Amino acid sequence: MSSWSAPDPLAALSVRGLSKSYGSFSAVANLDLDIADGSFFGLLGPNGAGKTTLIGSVCNIVRPSAGAITVFGHDHRSREARSLIGLAEQEINVDRFLSVRQMLIYHGGYHGLSRRAARAQADEILTQFRLEAKADLRAYELSGGMQRRLVLARALLHQPKLLILDEPTAGVDVELRAEIWRQMKGLNAAGTTILLTTHYLEEAETLCDEIALLRAGQIVARGSSSSLRARYGASTITELYERALTAGAP
Amino acid sequence: MTTATFQAERPAVVWLLEREVLRFLNIWRYSIIGPVLSTVLFVIVFGNALGRHVDPIDGISYGKFIVPGLVAQTMVNVGFFNGTTSLFEARRDRYINDVFASPLRWWEINAALVGGGIARAVIVALPTVAIAMPLTGGGSVARPGVLLVGTLGLLVVVAQVGVIAGSLAKSLDHVYSMESIILLPLGFVGGVFYSVSTLPRAWDVLSRFDPVFWLVQVERIGFLGHGDTSAGAALLVVWGLAAALTAWSAWIFATGRLKP
Questions:
Q1: CB A149 within 8 A of CB A131
Q2: What's the farthest any 2 CA atoms get from each other in chain A?
Q3: How far apart are CA A147 and CA B162, in angstroms?
C-alpha cells in the first residue's frame, strides 16, 4: 500500500511521494507538490537538484521509482493528462528528418489533431513565433535562438492547459528572452498554468506568483518571492536563494 | 478535475507511422535506391555472370536460385536498419521525448516503428523482384500462399529485431557493429547463395540454428516451390520467431525500459 496521501484533483499538477533513483543516486526523494490551476510557478535549484527529473516524471519521459502524479485530476500516464501538457525541454530536441512545418504538424497529430487542424495550427504558431520564413528548412538549419523558439512553438501547438518550461531562456539573447517573457505572461493571463524552471533568479521573481526551491531532490522552501524573502530575512532573491539552499527549511 | 476524455480526430498512431515512412522517403537515395541497386548487382554478377559456370540446383538455374535468398537478405538488412537507426537517432537526439510526452500509447509507438520498417522493406523488395526476375529468366511464383504468409512473418521478424536493437544500442558504433558482427555473418551462412543440403551433415544441422536460414527458406519455397525444409516447418519457425520478438519488443515498450 502507498504511504503518500491522495493527489489533489483540483490542482493543475499534484505530486505525491515522488521518488526517483538512478542506482544509488537519489534524484528526487519523496517529493510532494501542488500547483494551482492558473498559476505561474517557478522551480529553482542548482544543477542536479532534481528539476528535470521531476519534469520528466510528470511528462512520462522518466519512470518514477515511487509516487503518484495527477494533471488536472488525471493520472499523469493517461492520454487525457498528456494531452493537457505542453513541454519545452531544456535541450533542443528536434526531429532532424522533418522540416520545421512538418515537425509542428506531426506534433499536432500525436496530440490527436486532424490533418487540416494540425496544418492550420502549425501555420498560426509559425506566424506567432515569426518562423514562417523558415517553415521549409530542417530544424537543425536554424540558429540557436530560432530553434529555442521552435521548441516553444511546438509545446504550445496543441493548446495545453499546463505548460512546462525547463530553462526556456538558457543561452538566448536579451531580445528573445524579453519576447519569451512577454509570451509567457500573455499565456498565463489567458488561463494557462505554467511551471517554469530557471537559473535566472530575477526571471522567476518577475514572472512567477509562487516559487519553490529544490535541493537534493526535495523542496526546501515554497511561497511567493516576497513571503520567502521575509521568512529568510533576505533583501534580494539571490540572497534568499543562497540562504534557503544553504540552511534548508527554516 | 477536467472530465473530458481524450479523443483523436485522426489516430495518433497513423501520424507516427506516416512520420516513420516520411523519414526514410526523405533520404530515398540511401534508404531505397542503394539497397535495390546493390541487390540487383548481386543478381547480375553472381546470378548471370558467375552463375553460368555453376550447375543448376534441383533443376533450377543458379541465377534463379539465388534471387529469393537475395530478396530475403535485402529485406533483413533494410528492415533491421530502419528500426535501429530510426529509434536510436530518436533516442540520441531526444526527440522521442516529444512522442513519449504525447497521448500515444506504448503499443502505438511500437506498432508505428515496426510498421515503418515493414513499409521500407516492402518498398525495396518490390522493385528488386521486378528487376531481378526478368534478369534471371522470369517465371511465376510457385506457391503464392507460402510467399505471402512467409513474407509477412519475415517482415515482422526483421522490423522487430531492428526496433529491439534500436532500443538497446548505446551508440552509433553499436548499431553498425550489430550489422557487421551479427547480421552479415548470419546472412552468409543462411543459405542465400547455396542449398544447405550440399553441405556436410554437421553444417546442414548448424544452419538450422541460424534465423536467417528460415527467412531465406520461406522466400525460396514461395518463389521456387521447394527449399531445404518443408513449407510448414519454415512458416512455423518464422512465425514463432515473429511472436517471440514481438513479445520481447512489447515488454521493452510496455515496461518503459526505453526511459531512464
A1: yes
A2: 55
A3: 30
- Give the side-chain half-sphere CA count within 13 A for A106: 24
A62 contacts B260? CB cut-off 8 A: yes
Terminus-to-terminus CA distance in chain B, angstroms?
Answer: 29
Give yes or no for A101 touching B (CB within 8 A). Answer: no
Residue A148 has a pLDDT of: 93
Q: pLDDT tens digits for A6-52? A: 888 889 999 999 999 998 899 999 999 999 999 999 999 998 899 99
Contact B5 A80 (CB under 8 A): yes
Which helix (H) or strand (E) segment holds residue A68: the answer is strand A66-71
Inform me whether the C-beta atom of residue A141 falls under 8 Å from chain B C-beta atoms: no
pLDDT tens for each residue of A150-190: 999 999 999 999 999 999 988 888 888 999 999 999 999 99
Q: What is the pLDDT of residues B91-103, one digit of tens each?
A: 999 999 999 999 9
**Is residue B86 within 8 Å of residue B116, measured between CB atoms?**
yes
Please state the ipTM of this predicted complex: 0.91
Contacts of A102 in chain B (CB under 8 A): 22
- The answer to whether the CB atoms of A114 and B9 lie below 8 A apart is yes
